[in-house]
User: What shape does this take?
Amino acid sequence: MRILLTVFLVAVFLVGCKHADNKIEPEDLYDSPDEAISSYFSKNNVISAIGYNIHSKIILLVEEGVEAYSIAELIKNQDNRYALVRRGNSVQISNATGATWSFSGMDSTPYRVNIKKQGYKDNQNAVFHKEMGLYIVMEVKESEQYVASEDYEVLKSK
Assistant: This one.
């Protein structure tokens, strides 16, 4: 019985956390993309970030701690105001050579990011970003396959 209750509570917690990404508070809306990004960086103690332009959407890979990374998406609402919204949990790679994870944009577009530490042999044609010390591949799913984005900009450096 105790195990069943624990499983139920964990499931409720995970479902509740999943929807938190989609909520944009009025105080998180700004008049320009630069203001939204700057505010997000200061509120979340961002160390470095790389922005990818994928089909006119801006997706950020954010370093938020020692070898801890997360994804954020720049959103423009119907009032032409901007917010940077976190997409999922952070990924810690301190005890690993890297990580690959999938996430969805606010419009449910599927994405995938692959990060590997410097010196890792199989980097799958990733681009090395000295700002983060990582090989990175950011991909969007088109039809039935993932396609890598090569349109990026370093937004904040260590």
In short: The chain has a mean pLDDT of 83.
